[in-house]
């Protein structure tokens, strides 16, 4: 007579151990390397493909262990990844054995279970795409160039998979007709609307000279030259971006109006410019270098010249949240700093710039990464072929987390700050009303 075993499966033991150590229920389905499953029915399943996935989660603090296990392919997320990232407390506490809500006996029992499951072995080697220890002073020119290269020099064709033909890597400007969160088909329209909004805020007119700091793949430079007949100097630290941008400029027949340089903005000395744009670049500058950034851009502007700074901002301090040791710092933007808006405004005003307008675009950025996630998923095989499985996984997780960061109030936002260099007599050169200077 066969008696069915009632011993807990690997998945049941693993789920129970995590819940005991963390002191909270885990409302996701779990599957283990032996095919066993546990947990409630859910629209997301966390798959531990091997014991190394458990080791990685346990060895690394905060969310970094979860990121490392996923990026390396030891842990899979089936179903709605957005749902997993929004579960309260789970991501913040999964990578560390928190004793909140658990008595000492429960925690010791969980540790014993992890040992039996092989989860407390030697520290696993981080994925190859994780940023190595950086050299040199933070925000030195050499270190900034290395950090920018890590993020942007991963293949133009890879970026094109999710950015689309506009190759704009910042939030779109979605009008009311595009209020659907999954309105992927209107991404190009939203990005072109954003480019034109920037040009109108800068008051571009034929014959003007524009400096585009952090010009990316040249999209704004081309739009400004084609639509507003201005000459543009675009600078980037990414060699791959510069090559792509230069080819686009040549193809568009705009080489007489646009110059793309591989150059640190601090080395630009051929002002004055009538206008300066900085779209998604000042996040790389850092808090300590922000006053130098503001002063140098002021020095490059002619009197009554306008500066538009488009940058992500933190709503509350990110210190202590785990971000500094997690996904963003170790995989995406090494040395990047997301600062409160007040820091930027203070640096601008201390340098002598007059801030004339601030527009928050949080809802617009919440829509944009969701569109990027959809496109990356639709091109997943190509993404792996172009960038490798680890990097493709990194970007998918990063874009999904970014969308949620902007959707949840009180975490991240983004602002366009319009400032001017006043003339000696105090004139800003701006019309008195926003409606007039927006055109």
From TrEMBL:
GO terms for biological process: methylation. Pfam families: CMAS. Keywords: Lipid metabolism, Methyltransferase, S-adenosyl-L-methionine, Transferase. One of its GO terms (molecular function) is methyltransferase activity. Coiled coil: none annotated. Its EC number is 2.1.1.-. It comes from the Bacteria. Belongs to the CFA/CMAS family. This is Class I SAM-dependent methyltransferase. It comes from Rhodococcus jostii.
